[in-house]
Amino acid sequence: MDTENTPLSAGYHDVAPNMLATIVTCLEMTARPAPRANPPTDGLTVERWHSPSLNDYRALYRRVGEDWLWVSRAVMADDALLAIIGDPAVEIYAMMRDGERLGLLELDFREAGQCELSFFGLDQSLIGAGAGRILMNVAIEKAWEKPIQRFWVHTCHLDHPAALAFYQRSGFKPYKRMVEIFEDPRQTGKLRADAAQHFPILKSE
């Protein structure tokens, strides 16, 4: 992800009806934070997911991310996605219950000395029930097992409204803000037309 961009000038900037604009906040931690206790697990486990198939990976990616307008991995070319999820420097974990995948955690160690929390998401049924803390504790543990100096993540205002505060409670500190403009995937059929109802579609007349 490129975080070096030309700053926007002050004022209002029109966004085309077929496009979305979102505020992206980048956060980082430069030392392992004090541990936080897990809530009751209620049968949930977090397991390393070795060599997921494209179909299985995208199914979970959509399950946890479609209503927050996650689109990048849903439309990425197969060979490009396989190169990422098959890279030994990328670790993928699934939150499981009774053999069903209900959460996605992806840690990217491809840049020396750093770990990016690339994806972190839960099925809607788990949000607000403590599952996020369980998954984040695994993320922090696994990231800082490696010789890194920085663990970072980005989120945006299209994500769950509690996401930014959750990352901060977990020990991440905001350091940069950006605006991202991208094509609305609901208008192109790349995501369900009724996804992310909290963020309305604008259509040209």
Automatic annotation (TrEMBL):
Q: Which domain of life is it from?
A: Bacteria
Question: Which keywords does UniProt give here?
Answer: Acyltransferase, Transferase
Query: Do the record's keywords include Kinase?
Result: no
The record's InterPro entries line, in alphabetical order, gives: Acyl_CoA_acyltransferase (IPR016181), GNAT_dom (IPR000182)
Domain N-acetyltransferase residues, every copy:
44-194
Matching PANTHER family, A to Z?
Answer: PEPTIDYL-LYSINE N-ACETYLTRANSFERASE YJAB
Any idea what this protein is called?
GNAT superfamily N-acetyltransferase
Species per Swiss-Prot/TrEMBL record: Peteryoungia aggregata LMG 23059
Q: What is the lineage of its organism?
A: Bacteria, Pseudomonadati, Pseudomonadota, Alphaproteobacteria, Hyphomicrobiales
